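Agenda item 2: glutamic acid complex prediction
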Amino acid sequence: MYNFTTRLTAIAAAVAVLFLLNGCAQPQPEPESGINYTVPDQPEMSTGYTPKPGWETSEFAVAAANPLATDAGYQILQAGGSAVDAAVAVQMVLTLVEPQSSGIGGGAFLLTFDGDEVHAFNGREKAPSAADENLFMDENGEPYSFSDAVRSGLSVGVPGTIAMLAEAHAEHGNLEWEELFGPAITLAEDGFNISPRLQGLLDADQTLRKDSIARELYYDDEGEALPVGHTLQNPALAEILRNVAAQGPSAFYNETVAGDIVDRVQSHERPGLMEVEDVLAYAELDFKVDPMCNDWRSYEICGIAPPSSGHIAVMQILGIMDHLEAPSEVLQDSIPTADWLHQYLEASKLAYADRAKYIGDADFVDPPAGSWHSLLAPDYLQKRASLIEDRAMESAEPGNPGSLSSAFGIQPEQPEMGTSHISIVDRDGNAVSMTTTIEQGFGSRIMSDGGTGLKGGFHLNNELTDFARIPEDLDGNPMANRVEGNKRPRSSMSPSLVLDAETGEFVSSVGSPGGAGIIHYTAKAIIGMHGFGLNAQEAIDLPNFVNYNGPSILEQDRFTAEIIESLEAMGHEIDERDLTSGIQAIQRIEGGYFGGADPRREGVVMGD
Ligand code: GLU
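Presented output:
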């Protein structure tokens, strides 16, 4: 619970972090843009589980997965930038400093609250127009292994992040587009210190070093990953960002950059089908979509509709649980009780069963009963909740919210990883919740230098492996999420903005990376803050627990033997593993904001 000691610790830690990041910053020459970006000192961050204090601010706040990215957002907000302005600057720095997770070669969803309404933008990657449901089948009609599919030109979707951000900025920006690129360009030119997390991931990845651009950028002559603290410059990325800053998205969606992306995709040993026209056509799209907003208790929670499964699944879990009689105790020593976990895990099985059957790109797939909201209708959730008993189900069957049944096959769970979440509130109270991805760590393991011929560049996503690799089930029913030309793959990303249902005021911004676990990490943070009454940091710190409609996975060494035994006695199959969420959250508190960053990654919160 939030108390005075927590607050003192938070303030002390915020001061320490701000000092580390800003206190020793070298003055930089005044840039032409008018924003005097100063490169912060770069403290070395530890890997593994690093406790975070939580940060209290009074006017604005930004939370991102890397201190340099958070700091770029902070400097933009301080210079009068809007939450969307800061999101653009944060994303460009993340492309450089957290290249394993997100970037201009990937896609993203962004929600922004303007004090009155929530607006949503869909920058999810698309399949090339020539793709069809057999995209991941080899010449013998056999599906590629998941790993071969990922590490191929076939998995690369048409990137969406820059085009989507440009539209969001045109509607919600305060500062000039060009100014938002200053931090990333400076860091790409002058270099940044490789963090322990990036170094560890570079070292562990055996495929990335086979890409000629990655090999030259990240590895030494012996093929060893460059060490922690090495100053890494990325001149190709600096050049691309300079062009996009000056000319807008047309400097990315053009023959030069698209030509290079397509060359790399098509010359891979498992070549993809992307053409330059696919990339050029993406820039012409309209990225604005209707947010999906639903009530839960005294809150209205807004998220992204399909192609993301995230919001619907989070809200189904929350909604189903509210139809059950709450256990007498939900938390014991800051750990959820076995009785509460039983209800959560069972509600999750039901939600993931519906997700596997119904969710695909809304431009291609009809929602059940004519509306995605049918999956969240109170009477439907009540019916689903009535299936939960004292004994755990092995797995759940999908439900049917309408009178007709949909003839979709049920997509088996596939691994997903990577991604980054950004939460921001600006001085005017506008908020952003943005989740951004290149899918796996380092995406397809293919890089592009954007046709610059310079050293470095950016990573191409493997988002198309979020499609069902096999297009139909054993009975021949097509998967809602099968590959089709120009379709967007199903996502789990769950950027969420929580509002007060009565007053319409901002309450919190939250989201996480973590593949299909994103849904659970986001649900946990929302329940922690707004169900259990914890502050954002305490909610993020709660141990992780996930269920994808089968065995339950609990975060390694965070639950007592007694809890595990009780769950097993109820019939749950339990596995313990690392569950590396990367939740960032900012909540409104009296007199300002309280932000939290996930102790399982390198994120921090900054603000004034
Ligand atoms: N590609 C996944 C999605 O869009 C996210 C990957 C991850 O977070 O690991 O749902």
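Discussion summary: The longest strand covers residues 107-113.
Owner for follow-up: CH.
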